Structures are given as structure tokens and as C-alpha cells.
Amino acid sequence: MAKRKATRKYVYYPDITRLKPFEFHNQVGRIPTKEKQDSITDLIGYDILEPFFREKAVQRQVNYNVMREKAKEKTRAKKREWFLDQLDEEMKAKFFKFVEEYNQLVEKEDYTMADKVKRRFQCKLGYYFNKDNIVKKRKAKVKSLKECTHVECDLCNMILENNPIQKRKHANWHSTAQRDGRNTTQGQVRWKPSKSKEESEGYA
Q: N or C terminus: which one in the chain shows less Cβ crowding within 10 Å?
């Protein structure tokens, strides 16, 4: 079975400081109610046995916490190895730099900047794992734009002939819309191939 690749949505990167939104307060060693007392507590008296029961309950909780932490540490080590195995040397260097920068910001309690640094690395990681598909899609789009007879503006949905002069004029029309007081969207045009010749009739 093929290994699942880590994506940019991978939340807990290895070695980074984990933030807790709030503290969890567990009731350790809760005293049993009188309804649950057995005959020996009734015979001797619950007040006498209470320290013994509490000590046992606390010890069980401590042992459970130690066992759980060991299991978590073992899982973290496996996930760390699995995660780093998917990165080349250049990406590993970027990852370790990100971890160092992120942990320093968390220590300074600059959580806003730490989140920005994390999101920035997530974008890099997403591109790293999907760069082949991204490059493939870009090449396919460039090829389709070269081969199509008409293109569509993504800002106003106007369809024009695939002519460099017309496209340049239309792009300039959008880029200077606010300056010239035009009632249209200001921005950079991204062209896309028109869906069919029928849609382009009458707009060329």
C-alpha cells in the first residue's frame, strides 16, 4: 500500500511547540461516593481508608499518564521519520529553519507572527508536494491559450479574439479603471480560453 503524502494541511509538524488553547483540569483521585462503599469501609470507617484510596487513585493516574506519554513519544518519532523521509535536503533545511523561527516566536508569545510563519511554510510545502501537477496545469493552460481563437477576461467576462494587441488594450483598460473613473473592475487580467466559438460571436 502506497504511503500517504503529507500535504500543506499537515497541522502538527514535528519538533514545533504545540499550543494549548486552554488548560485541562482533570479530577485526580475522586473520592468514591458512600453508595459505592463496600462492607469493609462500613466496618472500619471510610475516613480511615480515604488516604489509602486517594493514594492508589493518584498513583494509577500517574502510571497512566507516563504510559500515555511514552506511547505519544513513540508515535511522534514514527511520524517525524515518515515526514522527513518525504523531503529532499533543500526542503529539510527550509523545514528546520521554519521550526527554529516558529519556536522562537512562540517563546516570545508572538502568536500572530508565528501563525504567519507557519502558513508561509505550509504554502511552500504544498507547492513542493504538488509542483509536478502545478507545472503540468500551467503548461496545459499556456498551450490551450496559444491554440484557442478567442479568450475570455476573468474580470468582466468579455470575450475577445486571441490577438496580442486587443488583449494588451483590454488589460490596460482594467489596470487604469480607477484612475480614469471607469465603472469596471480594477485589476490584472488573467485570460482563459473561451468555452466555444458560439459564445464569442458578436463580441470580437
A: N
- 10-residue stretch averages of pLDDT, the chain, 204 residues long: 48 69 44 52 63 84 89 85 85 89 88 88 83 77 82 87 87 86 85 66 48
Whole-number pLDDT of residue 187: 86
Q: Is 138 left (phi over 0), alpha (psi -120 to 50) or beta?
A: alpha
- If we measure between CA atoms, which residue out of 144, 147, 185, 150 comes closest to residue 167? 150
Residue pointed to by grid coordinates 499556456: 142
Report the Cα 134 to chain-centroid distance in Å. Answer: 18
Q: Give 160's strand partners.
A: 151
Separate counts of helices (H) and strands (E) for the chain = 7, 3
Kindly report the pTM of this predicted structure. 0.45
* Cβ partners under 8 Å of residue 18, min gap 6: 12
